[in-house]
Task: structure prediction
Amino acid sequence: MLTVDIVAIGLMAVGAFVMLTGMLNIMKFRDFYIGIAGITFIIGVILAVALGRRGIVDTLAVLFLAAGAFFIITGVIGLLKFPDFYTRLHATGKCDTVGQIFIVVGCMIYSGLSLISVKLFFVAAFYLLAYPSATHAIMKAAYATGLKPWKKGDPRM
Amino acid sequence: MRGSGKAFSMLITFCVALMFWVLLSAWNIYLIGHYDLFRLIRGIIVALIVTITVHELFISEQAEKVFLKFQRWLRYITWEIWQIILAAIDVAARVLGLRPIDPRIIEFETTLRSDRALTTFADSITLTPGTITIYVEPETGKYTVHAISKEPADALTVDQTMQRKVGYVFMEEG
Result:
């Protein structure tokens, strides 16, 4: 049984290493290899979840929830820090989407292979449709009413 | 739409609607202890109503094209999710002061014309690094986009990877 743990952790570690180093531009990987790394990571997660390894699964869920919380806090800081309406929408629109999706994925991992996971998957899919549409609608309304965008060098609004 | 195309789109819409119903109410159908036929029949009736009303909106092409497009769309969506995560890290770096911001509004034209392709591309722009769609003109495929800095703007106007990918998925390149 210990072998299974090592295999699952190994798969997740290799996948996460390639994805993180590619993401932060420490190493250059082609998109194809990043896709393979993603699939490797997902296989490791499914292995751990399917065999009911509570230790690994709970750690992963906590990591995903922490990543989601980090992105949402960053979005809030951006909302307070950025100079005008449009740039603030950039901060909230993107960081919130990814933060929510990370949190939902964390809950999916926590609840394992069950119907709750399927429903949470649909929730995540609807986030991906709803957030960009709402951001675009607010942006268009602001632009149509003639709000001037901030340029580099202007004073803060 | 020809007869066979109509039957095909109705069949696919019905299957998807029924699958959705079973997935979301499987707790009621299976876990009570016996196979609940009444709920399943209710699902079939609802799926039929949905099929008759919206099948033309859901699928409006021939069978071969739909499967090819779906395969391409799946590959596109994996690439897109990767880009979304990169976008969040990019914006987080700008929020925390690691990269500068230099907002600008850009305009460019694409070869996309159909509603679905235009919507997909607009949503993709909003989700990927530092750009948000403001206006879309369906007749000319013209996009007005607010970019947070120079590099994301160049990715759309000079590099044009995403236009080519969306055009490839919906078969509307040039």
Notes: The two ends of chain B are 25 Å apart (CA to CA). The beta strands of chain B are 104-109, 131-137, 142-147. The first helix of chain B runs from residue 3 to 30. Chain B has two domains: 3-60, 64-169.
